[in-house]
Design brief:
With 165 residues, the chain is an all-alpha fold. The protein has a domain of 65 residues: DNA polymerase, domain 1. 58% of the residues lie in helices and 2% in strands. The radius of gyration is 34 Å and the shape is elongated. The termini are far apart.
Length: 165
């Protein structure tokens, strides 16, 4: 014969099992019965059609085809020290990935200041700098790259215990 404590534990486990079974049955019942309403299904169909058309358009494009030249030329000189990715990408010879690298380099290391400063970006060489010479400008001063660190900063600090000896 079970003790009163064991009977309480068995009753507790029986209730937990019954509740779990009831929740599972309710979940299965609502999942089988509840299909999405008409407006949700229509919205899903629109999204699927848009995704399919975009995928189809991407596959049907001819590789290596460039956009017309009138879409790539900027209307005025572009200041590379403050311009965003779309303005930089509009320059001749610069694509989206190079524009991202230019902005990332500028954000990390400061303004370019000149065409020589622009050469520090990976993927920009003398040829591209020559192309960009008449279409870009620089308004900010470059961050000094050769700053001298004082010798006292290079020496490790003495610990208090070292000075007491």
């Amino acid at each position: 014969m079970a003790t009163p404590a064991e009977r309480k534990a068995l009753l507790f486990f029986g209730i937990v099992i019954a509740l779990g079974t009831g929740v599972r049955a309710a979940h299965i019942h609502t999942a089988a019965r509840g299909s999405p309403d008409a407006s949700a299904r229509a919205a899903l169909e629109v999204q699927l059609a848009a995704a399919d058309s975009a995928r189809h358009a991407k596959l049907s494009k001819k590789k290596g085809r460039k956009p017309p030249i009138h879409q790539k030329l900027p209307s005025a000189r572009v200041d590379l020290d403050v311009a965003g990715e779309p303005e930089i990408e509009a320059l001749r010879g610069i694509g989206p990935s190079l524009a991202r690298r230019i902005v990332a380099d500028r954000d990390s290391f400061g303004a370019f200041g000149s065409l020589e400063g622009l050469k520090r970006v990976r993927g920009i060489g003398s040829g591209l700098v020559a192309k960009l010479d008449s279409t870009v400008t620089f308004s900010l001063l470059p961050r000094p790259m050769n700053t001298v660190v004082s010798p006292t900063r290079l020496r490790p600090k003495k610990h208090v215990r070292d000075t007491l000896r």
